[in-house]
Amino acid sequence: MKKHNFNAGPSVLPQVVIENAAKAVIEFGGTGLSLLSISHRTPEFEAVVNEAQALFRELMQIPDNYKIFFVGGGMSTQFFHIPANFLGKKAGYINTGVWTKKSIKEAKRYGEVQVLATSEDKNFTYIPKGFDIPEDLDYLYICTNNTIYGSEYHTDIDSPVPLIADMSSDIMSRPVDVSKYAMIVGGAQKNLSCAGVSFVIIRDDMLQKVVRDVPTMVNVNTHVDNNSMFNTPPVFPIFVMNETLKWLKSIGGLKEMYRINKEKADLLYNEIDRNPLFRGTVEKEDRSLMNICFIMAEGKEDLAPEFMAFAKERGMVGIKGHRLVGGFRASCYNALPKESVEALVACMQEFEQLHK
Asked: Residue 204 catalytic?
């Protein structure tokens, strides 16, 4: 039976990327060695890092006054790396869920945190809007897509202070205006790679704004100055990321990727809205294209375990909602084929017929 991978992360990767990675594990780039046992200092692997940086710049149209580097540790490490480098007195945070709450907790170790807006009053089912941004902040921090609750920023906000964004789960899913951000960071295991590497896109002026003497590995300049090679980088995840970036370019780049993602999301949201057994959980204007969250309709809650088993029997993998919110979550990342969404929709329609 064909499996349809809706896992929230680590998540689905393009088949060609998996195949190329498997080949490289056996023999990498004409070296006669496995990718898993080469030195990161070899010219062949340095070429992979340089190509990945160039593809980031090309696909996202990153201006020349930005640097790009790759580092281990995941986004949870960036939660404290960011304030350690840049929070001197006061920073602003927009609280849209679990991941911003974790980042706020870490930032409070380094200075004052102002929560400028929050959607906690409605269980994080919308994106706050219309809030004021004080001009005396060291930076403003947002998470652009919320994997647990299924909300997403669909525009690049304007900020009078440096804007830092966690884009772990919607990176490369749509075109963004990079010039509006001082820093874009994230774990790569949603849209770009397997687990183990994070990406950082940082504007040059931020490199002069490190406010304290931090450990060498925490200082952003360390990784910029050493081209992601200060210590042994996560070699295999970087290779996989580069292969994914090449795949993204081959299908037409971010405009085409956004068209595909919008088509997939519309297909599933339309079924959620039409089907009397289900309902969405997020305000329609803020619904995520990446993480589509839904529950059983009012009065149908007792059908949830049955539908979960029903969907699993038909090859749906990873649609159980996060333990904090329950229900269902279909993560429709870049590499998820439209056919998988069509299969889930057909499954929902079949289930509906059984319970008419």
From this structure: no
